[in-house]
Input
Amino acid sequence: MNNQGTRGFTLAEMLLSVALAAMLLASLAAAMKASLDSYQANDRIASVTQAARSTMDRMMRDVRTADVADTTSSSLTITPAGQPAVQVQYQLASDRKLYYRKTVSGTTTSSVLMGGTGEATVKTFAVTSRRLQDDQGQWYTAAVTVRLEVAMGEETMAMTASAAPRRNQEY
Output
């Protein structure tokens, strides 16, 4: 038989094309994995950011509707308007968890707002207040500022919010 008229690929050409296809598929798989890892990391960061924002919004809403807002460097204690038997406290404990405690007529319930699960930890929960004296010489809290810093892996996110209690306002 005469092989001059046949067409086809040599074994070396076939091995080269298979090797090139394998390299292309491997680089495509690596790119897809990096993209998926980045998506998952961004999703985790977004959920921690949302939890921090919700926590800050809740605290500032409580401050705005409070009759009394007392602060220390790592806690915020609020007495809601018209509810002298109720006390709400936000506090960063030594275990780096931010706690929400509500006391109603001597009975306290407690829950972890941040730092309880997942990879996020509360690095800083700093509370400051501005106190003023009214016409009768009584001291009151005019404004409360909260700084919350949350770490997730090597990333750190900080938020600051301020609010003024609407004490004794008449409508």
In short: The radius of gyration is 30 Å. The first helix runs from residue 11 to 64.
